[in-house]
Amino acid sequence: PTALPTPVPASTNTPAPSATPGPTATTAATNTPTPESLPRLRGEAGSPVEFVNVLNQQVRDYLLGNIGPAELKANWQGTALEGVQKFLDSTVPSALALAPRDARPVDTRMRYLGEPVVVSDAQGNASVTVREWWRYTARRNDKTACETRDYFYKLVKVPGGYKVDEFKGTFVDASCAER
Known about the structure:
Elements: E1 26-27, H1 48-64, H2 69-72, H3 78-95, E2 106-112, E3 117-120, E4 126-138, E5 143-158, E6 161-173
Antiparallel strand pairs: 1-5, 2-4, 3-4, 4-5, 5-6
């Protein structure tokens, strides 16, 4: 398989990453995997690192069809919300050779590859950069696409936690080898 296209950056202040080759889905060799627990970055409750765990669980729940666009708004805002919805509703289905309306459920596997880098400011806002490996498998057609990206999350402090104000993923590779 080849890479998923680069997600649209969530901020107009960030230059668009260069396009990556279009995805080529492959047929999975096994039956639909049983959803497993996502790995977790180690972070204190309420920390920016813990919030990235929440975001990735939300992405997985969306792809499984367990939540919809309204639930994404709890943690994503503005152009970050638009970017994640485009990625989940268009980019992933396209990589799996499906029309957006036929895409869900999609099973996922993911791994964090290394420790996150966190930078906080005096107002409590933070940025988190972490390398993530993802495998997406469509239940409808058993197609699989994989990617490794360096993800950047810009988090703004809000009452009770954070919201994603910007995110982007810089393509690293499209290997489906388990990490």
